[in-house]
Amino acid sequence: MKWTIEVDCTPEEVRRIMGLPDLTPIHERYLAKMQEAVENGTVGPEIVGQMMKSWAPMGDAGMDFWRKLLAGGTRPTG
């Protein structure tokens, strides 16, 4: 027997149900600081690229996987 339950709620409602903190003020401050750094020339494209690599799972290997996937060279299995 298989059951499917569909819950229709906003991300804010899920956050509250799960008891997670509201990080909106921190996120807005971070974005303002990043925008300021970009406008002042402190952050350039090379730094943004390095940040993106650090966010990717498994570093460069993860980025290569996503490049291949988006290029159509690799298909996920599952």
Describe this structure in words.
This protein is an all-alpha fold. It is 63% helix and 0% strand. It has four helices and no strands. It has helices at residues 11-18, 24-40, 45-55, 59-71. The mean pLDDT is 80.
Continuous helix count: 4
Distance between the termini: 22 Å
Strand content: under 5%
* Sheet of most strands: none
Mean pLDDT: 80
Helix content: 55-70%
Beta-strand segment tally: 0
Low-confidence stretches: none
Overall body shape: flat
Question: What gyration radius follows from the Cα positions, in whole Å?
Answer: 19 Å
Q: Structural class of the helices, strands and pairings? A: mainly alpha
Would you list the SSEs in sequence order as H and E?
A: HHHH
* Quaternary status: single chain
Briefly say what this structure is.
With 78 residues, the protein is mainly alpha-helical. The protein is built from 4 helices and no strands.
Topology:
Layout: H1 11-18, H2 24-40, H3 45-55, H4 59-71
Features:
single chain; 78 residues; 0% strand
